[in-house]
C-alpha cells in the first residue's frame, strides 16, 4: 500500500470523493483547489493586509535606505523599528505559502504514485493528469497567472520588476515537466488568489 503521509491521505481521500461526484479527476482537482482556498482564506486575508501595509510604508523604507545607505546595520535597525511602530510583520505575507507547500508536495506524491490517477483524462488534449501537459498550455497559463499575481502582491517597488519576471520564468520552467494535474492545481490556485485579492481589496 502506498504511503502518502497524513496530508497526502487527506488529499487523496478528498480527490476520490470529488471524483465520485464529478467522474473527472481534473474537475476534482479544481474543486480541491477551491476547498483549500476557502480553508486558507482567513490566513490569506491577514497576509494581504500585511502586504498592503508594507506597500504603504515603501516611501518611508526608501527614505531610510537613502539615509543609511552606508550603514547596513543602522538601516536594518531602523527598518525593524518602523515595522514595530506600524505593527507590521514582514513575514506576514508568507503565511498562505507556508501552508500551501505541504499540500503541494502531498498532491505531487498522490499524482505521481496513485494508480487511480494514471491515464486519467481531463479535457481535450489532457489525456493523463499524472503526466506533463504535452503542449505546455497549462504551464504557460500558470506562468501568466503567476505574473499577474506577483504584480498584485509585490511590496517593494524597487524589486518589483525583477522579482516578478524572475518568479514567472522560474516557476514556468520548473512546471513544464510537472504532472498536468499538479500544474492544473497551481493554475486554479493562482486564478482564485487573483480573485481573492480583488475581493479582499473591495471589502477592506
UniProtKB/TrEMBL annotation:
**Sequence ranges assigned to domain Membrane insertase YidC/Oxa/ALB C-terminal in this UniProt record:** 25-201
Q: Which Pfam families match?
A: 60KD_IMP (PF02096)
Q: What are the UniProt keywords, alphabetically?
A: Cell membrane, Chaperone, Membrane, Protein transport, Transmembrane, Transmembrane helix, Transport
Q: Which residues cross the membrane?
A: 25-48, 94-115, 165-188
Mainly localized where? membrane
Give the membrane topology.
Answer: Multi-pass membrane protein
* Protein localization: Cell membrane; Membrane
Cellular component GO terms held in the UniProt record: plasma membrane
> Belongs to which family?
Belongs to the OXA1/ALB3/YidC family.
Query: What name has this protein been given in UniProt?
Result: Membrane insertase YidC/Oxa/ALB C-terminal domain-containing protein
Q: Which species is this record about?
A: Candidatus Desantisbacteria bacterium CG1_02_38_46
